[in-house]
C-alpha cells in the first residue's frame, strides 16, 4: 500500500519545511532570499545581492534535477511531494472525511462533501492551516526572527501583511474551490513533463494484458462488450471512485493523472481478496510488456545524472568563491592631477561593502612599487553589512614615460581587513593614467613662473 508511505513522506517534508527556516549556523540560514536585507543565504553561506552570480547555477541545477527526476520517476513530484497534493489530502481526506464526516469515505472521492455548517467549519479549519502554510512559505523570504517582529507591528509592515493575506486567500481558493482542477488545467509542470517520458519512465499503469481491455480508441466498451473483453478485472470501479482527478486509469496514461497511486492501493485491496496482485502498479510500460524489472540506469538517466553532478560541483565551487567584502572601484572624472611635489595623482571612488557579520577595518595597497596610496592614510572602519564610499588618491613619482601621449598603467589593488590578518580580501584591476612628459614639464614651468 502506497498511501501510508506517502503520508509518511508528506509528514517528513512538512517537518523539514517548517523546521528549516529556524535552523541557523552563524546567523545564516540554509535557504533565505531576503529582499528586505538584499541577501541570499544558501547552504548556510550568506551572499549579497551583488553576488547573485550563483543564481544561474542554482536554477540550472534545479532544472536539471527536475528533468532527471521526471525522466526517472515520471510524476513522482506530483504524487509524493507537491504541496497541492498534500494540501488536498489534508483538506479532503483529513478535515472533510475523517474529522468532519461530510464525505462518505476516502475510498470515494466522486461524491462531493455535504453542504452546511460543517462544510463552512471545514473551510475555517483550512483557513487556519493556510495561514500557517503561507507564513511558513514567507519564512524563506523573511526569516522567522524578523517575521514575528514585523507581525507584532503590522502598521509598519503593510506589504508583508498584504502578501501574507494574499497567499492565505489564494490557498483557501485553490484548495477549497479549484481543487484538482489546478493540476489538470493550470499547472505548467503537468504539461511539460510528458515530453520527458520514455517507455522506461515510472508511471501508474493498468495492466490490460491481465485485466483485459475496458476502452478502445478512447471509448469505453458497452456492458455487453465488457463481458468479453475483461479478464481479471472485475469492473468494481474501486480504482475510479477513489481517483481524486476523476479519471479511469484503465483508459491508459492521461495528463490528468497525478500519480497519487490511490487507484493502485484500491485495486490491491480488491485483488488481494482474490489472492492476486494489483492490476494497477507503479512501473514502466517496458516493464509491463517484458515482465522484467524497471530499467533505471539507461542512457537518458545516466546522462542527466552526470550533467547534474557537474552542475552540483560548479554550484559548490562557486559558493566557495564567496568574498566577505565587496569592492567596486571607479575613477573620478579627472584623468590625473600633478601635485605640489610634481608627482602624478589619480583619484578613485572605492565603494566598500562589508558582507561579513562582524565590523572590520579595511586598507589597501597596489602591486606597483612606483605607485603608492597617498590618501587615506588610515584604515577605513565599516560596520557589519554596511557600505562606505571612500575617495582614494594614488600617487606616482616621476616615471619618465612616453613624451607623445598619456600612458595607462594596469595596476592591481589589494584590499583587505587589517584586523583579520588579511584573510578577508579582494583584488581588483584598475588603470593609473600617467601624463605625457610635456604636460609634466608645462606644469613645472608654470609653477616656476608663479
Ligand atoms: S489515476 Fe490513479 S494515480 Fe492517477 S490520479 Fe487517479 S488515483 Fe491517482
Ligand atoms: S479496482 Fe482493479 S478490479 Fe476493480 S475495476 Fe479497478 S482495475 Fe478492475
Automatic annotation (TrEMBL):
Q: Which UniProt keywords apply?
A: 4Fe-4S, Electron transport, Iron, Iron-sulfur, Membrane, Metal-binding, Transmembrane, Transmembrane helix, Transport
Entry annotated with the keyword Metal-binding: yes
Q: Where are the transmembrane segments?
A: 7-32, 52-78, 120-140, 160-179, 301-320
Q: Which residues form the 4Fe-4S ferredoxin-type domain?
A: 222-252
**Classification via PANTHER family:** FERREDOXIN-TYPE PROTEIN NAPH (PTHR30176:SF3)
Q: What is this protein called?
A: Cytochrome c oxidase accessory protein CcoG
Organism of this sequence: Campylobacter gastrosuis
Q: What is the lineage of its organism?
A: Bacteria, Pseudomonadati, Campylobacterota, Epsilonproteobacteria, Campylobacterales
Name the gene: ccoG
Amino acid at each position: 500500500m502506497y498511501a501510508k508511505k506517502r503520508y509518511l513522506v508528506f509528514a517528513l517534508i512538512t517537518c523539514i519545511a517548517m523546521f528549516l527556516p529556524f535552523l541557523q549556523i552563524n546567523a545564516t540560514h540554509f535557504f533565505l532570499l531576503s529582499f528586505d536585507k538584499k541577501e541570499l543565504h544558501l547552504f548556510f553561506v550568506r551572499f549579497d545581492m551583488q553576488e547573485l552570480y550563483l543564481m544561474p547555477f542554482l536554477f540550472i541545477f534545479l532544472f536539471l534535477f527536475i528533468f532527471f527526476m521526471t525522466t526517472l520517476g515520471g510524476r513522482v513530484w506530483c504524487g509524493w511531494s507537491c504541496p497541492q497534493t498534500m494540501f488536498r489530502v489534508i483538506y479532503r481526506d483529513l478535515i472533510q472525511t475523517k474529522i468532519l464526516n461530510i464525505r462518505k469515505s476516502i475510498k470515494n472521492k466522486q461524491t462531493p462533501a455535504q453542504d452546511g455548517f460543517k462544510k463552512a467549519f471545514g473551510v475555517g479549519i483550512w483557513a487556519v492551516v493556510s495561514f500557517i502554510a503561507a507564513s511558513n512559505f514567507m519564512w524563506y523570504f523573511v526569516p522567522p526572527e524578523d517575521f514575528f517582529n514585523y507581525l507584532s507591528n503590522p502598521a509598519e509592515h503593510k506589504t508583508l501583511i498584504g502578501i501574507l493575506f494574499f497567499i492565505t486567500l489564494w490557498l483557501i481558493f485553490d484548495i477549497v474551490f479549484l481543487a484538482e482542477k489546478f493540476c489538470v488545467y493550470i499547472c505548467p509542470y503537468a504539461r511539460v513533463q510528458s515530453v520527458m517520458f520514455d517507455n522506461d519512465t515510472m508511471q501508474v499503469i493498468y495492466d490490460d494484458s491481465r485485466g483485459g481491455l475496458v476502452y478502445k480508441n478512447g471509448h469505453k466498451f458497452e456492458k455487453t462488450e465488457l463481458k468479453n473483453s475483461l479478464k481479471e478485472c472485475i469492473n468494481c470501479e474501486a480504482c475510479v471512485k477513489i481517483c481524486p482527478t476523476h479519471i479511469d486509469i484503465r483508459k491508459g496514461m492521461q495528463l490528468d493523472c497525478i500519480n497519487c497511486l490511490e487507484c493502485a492501493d484500491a485495486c490491491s485491496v480488491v485483488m488481494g481478496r482474490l489472492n492476486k496482485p494489483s492490476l494497477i502498479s507503479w512501473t514502466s510500460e517496458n516493464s509491463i510488456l517484458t515482465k522484467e524489472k524497471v530499467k533505471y540506469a539507461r542512457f537518458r538517466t545516466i546522462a542527466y545524472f552526470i550533467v547534474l553532478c557537474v552542475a552540483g560541483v560548479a554550484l559548490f565551487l562557486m559558493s566557495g568563491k564567496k568574498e566577505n567584502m565587496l569592492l567596486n572601484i571607479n575613477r573620478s572624472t579627472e584623468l590625473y592631477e600633478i601635485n605640489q611635489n610634481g608627482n602624478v595623482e589619480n583619484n578613485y571612488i572605492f565603494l566598500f561593502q562589508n558582507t561579513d557579520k562582524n565590523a572590520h577595518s579595511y586598507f589597501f595597497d597596489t602591486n606597483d612599487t612606483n605607485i603608492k596610496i597617498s590618501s587615506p592614510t588610515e584604515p577605513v572602519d565599516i560596520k557589519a553589512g554596511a557600505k562606505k564610499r571612500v575617495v582614494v588618491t594614488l600617487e606616482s613619482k616621476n616615471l619618465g614615460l612616453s613624451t607623445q601621449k598619456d600612458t595607462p598603467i594596469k595596476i592591481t589593488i589589494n584590499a583587505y581587513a587589517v584586523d583579520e590578518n588579511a584573510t578577508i580580501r579582494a583584488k581588483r584591476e584598475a588603470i593609473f593614467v600617467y601624463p605625457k612628459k610635456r604636460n609634466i614639464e608645462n606644469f613645472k614651468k608654470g609653477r616656476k613662473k608663479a
